[in-house]
């Protein structure tokens, strides 16, 4: 496996200092460029602005996407077993320590996003070349920055609770002893950023893959839902559902088609991380590494030196499957499943029975070898070009259902049922249930729709506290004795407490900034 520490200033093709990011220093803001606010480094052309904001769709999120997102969203939640190394096993057993490597890399990655957004916003605010930058270019760039900063803080506050809010990057370089801010103020900050993004971004992005005002609305719906502000969550989701042609969103006809590289930036993709496959060592950090961790053990599927089977579908997830669900096969492989799109040169790939102690391996984001992807940029060891979905339109539909349900245990609202059935019908499951949706129905639907997209943990967090603890404590995290998914199940169930619903701030960050260990303070 290649080392994660790389200076990736050159890989995005941006020469401005604003794009520099070094991922391996101690401070969680070392990803923020220094000294960029001079007349030599201000943006001078729209192309420079657009190149800088393009960088925010990939590289700063690299370590978030690499192992952090799925370790929390799927392993910690019980969707997946993760036994590749000690760091991942801590997520598997829900005993993540402050020194966990993935925990730190995720924290640093998210604050790199914050730092990049702050740097661009400050450059634009102080730019002496305003006359050469048209208003649309500036507004769109600022909207993208507000969106990305809000998204990063949304992950931070859900995972760590109170966290530092930083907007003045230059000030941080002088005084990096910053406190954490209270959770309610972090959420207020997120909503304010998203309102700015909603106002400044166009309804439809001019460039495929760029976020729009619709993406800001979708994110706001999720944030409001997490805050139990069901009225605003419902309203924001409905703005998109009732105006699909305005914002250009809709469900793909086939669930399986979502996870082909050729279908990047499709109509269901509201916000996705953008990756480019590359085998060049200097470009490490531009490709999606998910296949490396998810592909069944061995190099057969990838044609590279990866394919570690680190993330595997848990027994618990498999037991929650529904007969006839057309999402199962594109989500995870079971014995004798045939995939014509993989290893095409030899006629396709049939998954054998002896690859996993859970009897299955992940299929989602596994796109195959170079030849399978030659038309879309190829695939290399630890590098494919498939986007990472962060918000899909199916999520908006189910967010609306959840907002309508609110604190109730079920809903028979016909509009909510109609949105639920759109997702369920695409999965080949028809109209069941027809007249009523329970909270358990909805959670199961979300689990099966978004497995291995890093979402299930956050779905559980939105449950009432006692229900969340009960569900997590009943989750089977064990595996079979044998590598063929055979033998007895070695059970692993954990008695989950409320303190396990938040992650600790990495110790290396507290060592540098002791105020992170203090009680949080108000920001506003």
From TrEMBL:
Annotated SusD-like N-terminal domain residues:
74-225
RagB/SusD domain segment(s): 354-518
- Location of the protein in the cell: Cell outer membrane
Respond yes or no to whether keyword Lipoprotein is given for this record.
no
Transmembrane segments in this chain: where? none
Main location class: membrane
SUPFAM superfamilies linked to this entry: TPR-like
The signal peptide stretch is 1-22
Q: Which domain of life is it from?
A: Bacteria
Question: Does the UniProt entry include the keyword Lipoprotein?
Answer: no
Family of this protein: Belongs to the SusD family.
* Descriptive protein name: RagB/SusD domain-containing protein
């Amino acid at each position: 496996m290649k080392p994660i520490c790389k200076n990736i200033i050159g890989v995005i093709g941006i020469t401005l200092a604003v794009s520099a990011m070094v991922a391996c220093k101690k401070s969680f803001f070392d990803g923020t460029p220094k000294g960029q606010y001079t007349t030599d480094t201000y943006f001078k052309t729209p192309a420079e602005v657009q190149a800088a904001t393009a960088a925010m769709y990939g590289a700063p999120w690299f370590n978030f996407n690499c192992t952090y997102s799925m370790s929390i969203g799927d392993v910690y939640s019980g969707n997946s077993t993760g036994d590749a190394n000690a760091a991942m096993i801590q997520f598997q057993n829900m005993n993540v320590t402050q020194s966990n490597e993935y925990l730190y890399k995720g924290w640093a990655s998210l604050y790199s996003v914050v730092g990049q957004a702050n740097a661009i916003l400050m450059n634009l605010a102080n730019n002496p070349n305003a006359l050469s930058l048209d208003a649309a270019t500036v507004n769109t760039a600022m909207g993208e920055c507000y969106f990305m900063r809000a998204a990063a803080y949304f992950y931070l506050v859900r995972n760590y609770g109170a966290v530092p809010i930083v907007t003045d990057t230059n000030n941080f370089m002088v005084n990096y002893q910053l406190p954490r801010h209270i959770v309610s103020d972090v959420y207020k900050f997120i909503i304010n950023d998203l309102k700015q993004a909603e106002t400044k971004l166009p309804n439809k992005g001019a460039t495929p893959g760029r976020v729009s005002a619709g993406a800001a609305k979708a994110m706001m719906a999720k944030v409001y839902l997490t805050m139990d502000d069901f009225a605003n969550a419902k309203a924001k989701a409905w703005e998109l559902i009732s105006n699909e042609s305005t914002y250009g969103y809709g469900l793909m006809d086939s669930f399986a088609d979502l996870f082909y590289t050729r279908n990047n930036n499709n109509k269901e993709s509201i916000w996705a991380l953008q990756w480019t496959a590359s085998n060049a060592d200097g470009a490490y950090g531009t490709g999606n590494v998910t296949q490396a961790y998810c592909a069944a053990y061995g190099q057969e599927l990838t044609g590279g030196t990866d394919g570690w089977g680190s993330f595997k579908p848990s027994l618990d997830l498999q037991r929650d499957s529904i007969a006839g669900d057309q999402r199962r096969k594109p989500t995870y492989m079971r014995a004798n499943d045939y995939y014509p799109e993989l290893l095409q040169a030899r006629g396709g790939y049939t998954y054998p029975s002896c690859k996993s102690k859970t009897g299955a391996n992940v299929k989602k984001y596994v796109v195959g070898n170079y030849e399978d992807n030659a038309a879309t940029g190829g695939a290399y060891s630890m590098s494919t070009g498939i986007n990472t979905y962060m918000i899909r339109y199916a999520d908006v539909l189910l967010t609306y259902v959840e907002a309508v349900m609110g604190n109730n245990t079920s809903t028979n609202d016909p509009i909510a049922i109609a949105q639920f059935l759109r997702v369920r019908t695409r999965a080949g499951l028809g109209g069941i249930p027809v007249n009523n949706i329970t909270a358990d129905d909805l959670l199961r639907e979300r689990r099966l729709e978004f497995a291995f997209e890093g979402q299930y943990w956050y779905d559980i967090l939105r449950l009432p506290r006692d229900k969340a603890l009960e569900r997590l404590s009943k989750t089977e995290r064990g595996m079979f004795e044998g590598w063929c998914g055979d033998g007895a199940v070695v059970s692993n169930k954990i008695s989950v407490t409320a303190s396990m619903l938040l992650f600790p701030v990495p110790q290396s960050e507290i060592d540098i900034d002791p105020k992170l260990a203090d009680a949080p303070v108000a920001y506003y």
